[in-house]
Design goal:
By secondary structure, the protein is mainly α. Helix content is about 65%, strand content about 0%.
């Protein structure tokens, strides 16, 4: 089913410069090295996702947004291989990244992933308030710490054909592992931080949740061919197939119908924002910050849904074979000394 999107579709005028910068940035940190990897990466068109999700950014800010999106997808995809079935090793790798956001970098191994993320975190957090930094650090910790549990789910799926999580377990892990909360933090980073009273209001909390969940649900439909063959059970289409004992088409249609419901709910809630701001006693500047935040959530969804339906990432030509080993170990330098448990 095709989604009915009420959001305006806009795109940044700085996409070309962001594209050039992004490739240089990835290569400078060793995240892309071989011609084959670069060719595959180009098919994903990450600059298009950034340009559509953040259409009002200047050239430098769009470069940062593009680097951020490229990190998510390159990092996440590397667990497609054998490392993604080793939860303890995934924990070790992700612990280093958690340490970076909390400023504990003394014993961080030198690796492409650690280097690129340290640079991202520095650029993202510069000039931001302690309140924003604390929240963003917590969301990044959530994102990285969800990956070991995903690996555990994959491992269990190889050991049992019925170890499929229920919806609540799926949502608990999916909301961390998709990293969307960290993307939504960047809406404030690129515009203005909004008052705490508004940020934690029921309307904006629901809008934020919908803006995170709707793309994640839709992504499960598009990424099914990539995830199901390798035993990923944290996919809502897989879960519904198991629960309803139905085919893929029926499960996918149900997921897209729920995605549409969330989009519609978001639109209804957005109409309540102006009155909420007035009743909370926000001044003109604060109200405008909240309105821009709501507009940013909508732009993120509009950009993501467009990119998802056009990128080659979820097509056979845009993904490596499911049985091809991942290369995260070369990016993370995860070579575990079993006697000491330390990186070497």
């Amino acid at each position: 089913m095709e989604l009915n999107l009420p959001f305006p579709r806009r795109i940044s005028t700085h996409q070309a410069s962001a594209t050039a910068h992004n490739l240089d940035w990835l290569q400078s940190h060793g995240m892309l090295t071989s011609p084959e990897a670069i060719e595959l990466y180009h098919r994903w068109d990450m600059p298009d996702l950034a340009a559509r999700s953040f259409p009002d950014l200047d050239a430098d800010e769009l470069a940062l947004a593009t680097d951020l999106f490229s990190f998510y997808f390159l990092f996440d995809d590397q667990f497609d291989g054998e490392l993604g079935l080793r939860p303890a090793d995934v924990t070790q790798a992700c612990d280093s990244l958690v340490a970076i956001v909390h400023g504990d970098t003394k014993r961080i191994p030198d690796s492409p992933v650690n280097s690129s993320f340290a640079d991202l975190w520095r650029r993202c957090s510069e000039g931001m308030s302690p309140r924003w930094r604390a929240r963003a650090a917590s969301n990044w910790e959530w994102y990285f710490s969800a990956h070991p549990s995903e690996a555990l789910g994959r491992l269990r799926a190889t050991e049992s054909s019925v170890d499929v999580p229920d919806r609540s377990a799926y949502l608990m892990l999916r909301r961390g592992a998709d990293g969307t909360e960290t993307v939504l933090d960047m809406i404030e980073r690129f515009a203005d931080e909004i008052p705490a009273a508004a940020f934690h209001s029921p309307q904006l909390k629901l809008m934020r949740q919908l803006a995170a969940d709707a793309p994640a649900f839709s992504n499960d439909v598009y990424s099914y061919n990539k995830e199901a063959p390798r035993g990923d059970v944290y996919n809502l289409v897989v879960i519904l197939q198991h629960q309803r004992q139905c085919g893929r088409a029926e499960a996918a249609a149900a997921v897209q119908a729920e995605t549409q419901w969330m989009i519609d709910q978001y639109q209804q809630l957005s109409h309540e924002v102006p009155e909420m701001c007035v009743r909370l006693g926000l001044d003109r500047v604060q109200r405008r910050a909240v309105e821009r935040y709501a507009e940013g959530l909508a732009a993120w969804m509009a950009g993501y849904f467009h990119w998802e339906s056009h990128t080659a990432r979820y097509r056979p030509e845009g993904s490596p074979p499911v049985d091809q080993p991942g290369h995260l170990e070369s990016l993370l330098d995860v070579r575990v000394d079993r006697s000491s448990g330390a990186f070497r």
